[in-house]
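Q: Give me the 3D complex with S-adenosyl-L-homocysteine.
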Amino acid sequence: MTPILSLSAAELERWLEGHGEPAYRRKQVWAWLARGEMDFDGMRDLPRALREALAKEFRASSLRSIATSQADRGLTSKTLFELDGGHSVEAVVMRYPDRSTLCISSQAGCPIGCPFCATGKFPFGRNLKAHEIVEQAADAVRVLAAEGRRLSHVVFMGMGEPMANYHAVVESVRRLSDPELLGISPRRIVVSTSGLIPRITQLGEEKIPVTLAISLHAARDELRDVLVPINRKYPVQDLVDAAQTYAEGTGRRVSYEWVMLAGVNDTERDAKELGSLLKHRLAHVNLIPFNPVEDTPYHAPDRASIRSFKERVEAQGLNVTVRDTRGREADAACGQLHERVMRTRVPVS
Ligand code: SAH
Ligand code: SF4
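A: Here is the predicted complex, encoded as structure tokens.
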């Protein structure tokens, strides 16, 4: 059966017309999906015959939730979804006092292959379709609604490189922010990239003011070539220039991510290089303590080293935050969750 979110607004309206229904029914259906209603029969303001016809023809979602796990006393929850065709991806919901953030996947696996990232350990599967990305959010809406919460932020920091699945990601961002669908302000959507420069430029031209996050991790080519291999194609100085153009075009400060790896990129030299690279840029630096991944040579620095690195970068006039340990477990969804969830599989009732 066809996943209903794989249809555009016009396509669904055409289907409705074919079933003798007015076009405005499409908005009603979308409003239910946006509220997390996954059962067509529960869409109470639709005529019974229409509900039945919808259920015969469509699935509310193509994702099958095959495992869930929780952390932080229930404040963080992860779901492993099976996609049509058998690949799986994960999404993470993080609950804070003032917001709820979903960390979303854009690809099953990732073709970039950063050596500290668990996603690279799995062979690349496939690109997600736009509806598969939106469906992760619809599921989070449903889960949060049951707790009296609203999904307020979405970060593309799960599995995959969003800019390597550009068209589906942009389409999903339009859907996520469409007031008739999920209505999440683009400003509350973060697209994180390892640095595909042409796509960053293209994203800037779309005029959707999403927040751009650049996974920097090193400020000199020699080191970044190793940590983020796409750097060999798109060197770091060009990347920061492209990100700056994006920032100026959208008026949105770029967030630079820096996974802290002890003895690798946490030295005084690295802090200095980072400071001079980002001087006078519309930038915010986000330090992420490394989340251990088996079979990698990396370790997280101790707290004192993180603090002194932060202070060194701040001393050069930059804005720096350290992601909390909760974020460390959850925000860096990127594959290691996949692994962890797989190890502690909890069947979903
Ligand atoms: N592919 C995109 C988005 C997904 S990764 C990107 O690289 O930006 C999201 C973030 O998690 C990136 O900043 C990535 O570098 C970081 N990350 C990956 N593995 C990590 C780990 N083991 N510990 C902490 N952060 C990690
Ligand atoms: Fe891919 Fe991002 Fe992981 Fe690198 S950090 S392998 S780009 S998901």
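A quick observation: Residues 110, 112-114, 117, 119-120, 160-161, 194, 215, 334 surround iron/sulfur cluster (ligand 2) (CB under 6 Å).
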